[in-house]
Amino acid sequence: MPADRRIDPKTFRSATILVAEGNRALRHALRNVLLGMGFPTIMLTGNSAETMRQLMLDPPSVLLLDHKLPGADGLMLVRRLRRDTGDMGRMPIILMAETPDAALVLAARDAGVSEIVIKPPAVEALVVRLMSVLKAPRPFVRVSSFIGPDRRRLGDRRRGADRRFIELEPEDISGSDRRQRSTRRSGRDRRGKAKPA
């Protein structure tokens, strides 16, 4: 695991978290788990109206959001938050879903979700996702068609990008990047060529 994603309890002790979960029992179970991780401030809400009020009153370091939060679809709430041009719009959001199929994962990514976990989340999975968004967040992108963490997760990590906020317009993306990528040979192409004798 890269150094910037190793488990570091100090990361949690300096962060606050809002758990927006419709199921009261799960909400309180998550609170106990997060207390055990070291979060000093854990806020709990049970529907979208409470969640929005709490976010306006005291924005947390990270939002743990129920996909089927009563009062609003979780992804609808994510899109609404991402339209905020202040710090709240760039807040890390971890979506919890009971059965996240490929379509939901893609929709969540396109809505601007930072990470997704199966609900109820296993402690290990939750720790990894929280470390990812708090210790090594992906650069934030704001363009006309998308607002959220950069969807090119692996490419950014390979390049070691250290910028946390990118604001681009469609014309900023040059055609030369696409041409360079299309001229690279795949590993299969390279292996298929015979070596000179």
Description:
With 197 residues, the protein is α/β, with parallel strands linked by helices. It has a domain at 3-137: Response regulator (Rossmann fold, 3-Layer(aba) Sandwich), CATH 3.40.50.2300. The protein contains 9 helices and 8 strands. It has helices spanning 9-13, 24-37, 48-57, 74-82, 102-111, 123-135, 153-159, 175-183, 187-192, and strands spanning 16-20, 41-45, 62-66, 93-97, 115-118, 140-143, 146-149, 165-167. Strands 2-1-3-4-5 form a 5-stranded parallel beta sheet, with helices on both faces. Helix 5 links the parallel strand 4 and strand 5. The longest helix has 14 residues, at 24-37. It is globular and about 40 Å long. The model is unreliable at 1-5 and 155-191 (pLDDT under 50).
Give a quick precis of the structure:
The chain is of the alpha/beta class and 197 residues long.
What sort of overall outline do the alpha carbons produce when their principal axes are compared? globular
Rg estimate, integer Å: 19 Å
Architecture of the domain at 3-137, according to CATH?
3-Layer(aba) Sandwich
Count of helix runs = 9
CATH homologous superfamily grouping of the domain at 3-137: Response regulator
Stated plainly, the CATH topology of the domain at 3-137 is called: Rossmann fold
End-to-end distance: 42 Å
Mean pLDDT equals 80
Helical fraction equals 40-55%
Strand content: 15-25%
